[in-house]
């Protein structure tokens, strides 16, 4: 892993994370542009999955993917059906994902600056939060083969 300037944490269910890894992309907040537009080529990107399945209430609470943003600008994917949201043309970023093992939040929370403040999880509702580079490096050391 090369030295990076910035890192991010995206909040994505594990089933959608698998699709992202297979496709080599990330899309956030139902394909809206504003989240992926904040990312820059070379930024670290971690995914936290609160649940295994989208819209499922049973918690997973694990970090499920790590990668590096691989492109310079967001792109729009082909139109796709998003159920009740209708047909959308989501904005995405290409990501070079590493091969990782999931890390349960309980396993790493005490080592992350992100989780040290009371009510730290509230910010996850935004879908994308800045992640201290040191936290990304900690997750990398725990999760990458």
Automatic annotation (TrEMBL):
InterPro entries: PUA-like_sf. This is EVE domain-containing protein. It comes from Kribbella shirazensis.
């Amino acid at each position: 892993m090369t030295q990076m300037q910035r890192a991010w944490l995206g909040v994505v269910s594990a089933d959608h994370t698998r699709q992202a890894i297979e496709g080599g992309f990330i899309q956030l907040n139902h394909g809206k542009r504003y989240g992926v537009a904040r990312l820059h080529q070379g930024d670290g990107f971690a995914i936290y999955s609160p649940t295994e399945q989208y819209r499922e209430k049973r918690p997973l609470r694990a970090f499920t993917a790590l990668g590096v943003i691989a492109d310079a600008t967001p792109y729009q994917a082909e139109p796709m059906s998003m159920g009740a949201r209708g047909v959308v043309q989501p904005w995405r970023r290409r990501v070079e994902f590493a091969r990782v093992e999931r890390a349960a939040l309980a396993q790493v929370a005490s080592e992350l600056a992100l989780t040290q403040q009371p009510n730290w999880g509230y910010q996850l509702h935004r879908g994308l939060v800045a992640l201290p580079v040191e936290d990304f490096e900690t997750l990398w050391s725990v999760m990458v083969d």
